[in-house]
Specification:
This protein is about 25% helix and about 25% strand. The protein has a domain of about 220 residues: Cyclophilin, CATH 2.40.100. The protein is globular, with a radius of gyration of 23 Å. The protein has a nine-stranded antiparallel β-sheet with strand order 3-18-1-2-15-11-14-5-4. The chain is built from six helices and 18 strands. With about 325 residues, the protein is of the alpha+beta class.
């Protein structure tokens, strides 16, 4: 074999390796229509694992937001902070075993727990550090030609996104907000789903949202102010899919019901069949970092939380398929 042939073989092999590596690296970043998430719950020192399918094909902004927060470990070691028969709300407060045991003994002392273990500042830090992709903007720029003149289409100026106007909230991908992002087969609010939740605001201000990369739509801020809080629906809910983004569904509903049955059985055995006294109610201030709305009460809004006396913990949220 000649030296030239040997060089050609080596070069060809190296090129094939580069192509194979590039293909493998590219495959790792492919975004599927239905990513997967695994939530590990903990209650009474036992773990319960529930796998979820996320619906990026219908709710791309919400799913991306949830995935980005999950990958930052934001949801790990959080608590169900507001317990109801139909929705268990989480995603806003860390679990501290010693403090939880102390503060859940009764009264508004639980409000102190939430104030001391709020993840709101961390959420804003992640956004300011560029770890969360914007989808809501207070304003836009106008597209200009090379001479600096505003570009018009159909007599309307063409708007373009500028991240200097980005707000640290998530657009609401539900029919009462942006109808065109919902496609046939949209998820309903039923047992086993996950819903991105937001605290309703009085604001009448308008913002700009980006349902897709080539769309800029004006919408009401009050429908586009979600941050990190989501609910795990475990029963009949008053929060419908028309007003809250239902973005995921449990793969095996039995895994979820096994977990919720364990919780309910524990409370039945501890507090009786009427379950009276198993939660502690407190007045909590939410959206303390609200800076866009000028309406009185949209910042430091008072909410009533019913926290379970025995903590229900979100031990981890892991993305198992992108």
């Amino acid at each position: 074999m000649t030296l030239n042939k040997i060089k050609k073989i080596i070069a060809g092999t190296a090129l094939a390796s580069v192509v194979a590596f590039s293909a493998a690296a590219s495959a790792c970043t492919i975004e599927t229509a239905h990513p997967k998430a695994r939530i590990t719950f903990e209650f009474d020192s036992k773990e319960y694992v529930v796998d979820y399918t996320l619906y990026r094909n219908m709710y791309p902004q919400t799913v991306r937001h949830f995935i980005e927060l999950s990958r930052e470990g934001f949801y790990d070691n959080t608590v169900i902070h507001d317990y109801s028969s139909g929705d268990w709300f989480t995603g806003g407060y860390s679990y501290n075993a010693e403090q939880y045991a102390q503060y859940s003994s009764g009264g508004d002392t639980m409000a102190d727990y939430f104030a001391e273990n709020s993840k709101e500042n961390l959420y804003y830090s992640l956004f300011n550090d560029g770890k969360l992709t914007p989808s809501v903007y207070s304003n836009t720029d106008f597209k200009k030609d090379k001479n600096g003149n505003i570009v018009y289409e159909d007599n309307n100026p063409v708007r373009v996104i500028n991240n200097k106007f980005a707000l640290p909230t998530l657009m609401g991908e539900f029919t009462n907000n942006i109808k065109q992002v919902i496609t046939n087969g949209a998820l309903s609010a039923e047992i086993g789903c996950l819903k991105m939740f937001y605290y309703k605001k009085e604001s009448k201000s308008k913002v700009y949202v980006t349902p897709t990369s080539d769309q800029i739509i004006q919408a009401d801020y009050k429908n586009n102010c979600a941050t990190s809080v989501f609910s795990v629906q475990v029963g009949t809910s008053s929060y419908s899919a028309t007003e809250y983004c239902v973005f995921a569904q449990a793969d095996d509903i039995d895994d979820l019901t096994d977990f919720t049955k364990a919780v309910n059985d524990y409370y039945d055995n501890t507090y009786g069949s009427d379950n009276s006294g198993y939660t502690v109610e407190s007045t909590v201030f939410v959206d303390t970092n609200e800076s866009f709305s000028t309406e009185e009460g949209d910042k430091n809004t008072e909410r009533k939380f019913k926290a379970p006396k025995t903590p229900i913990i979100i031990k981890s949220v892991k993305i198992t398929k992108n």
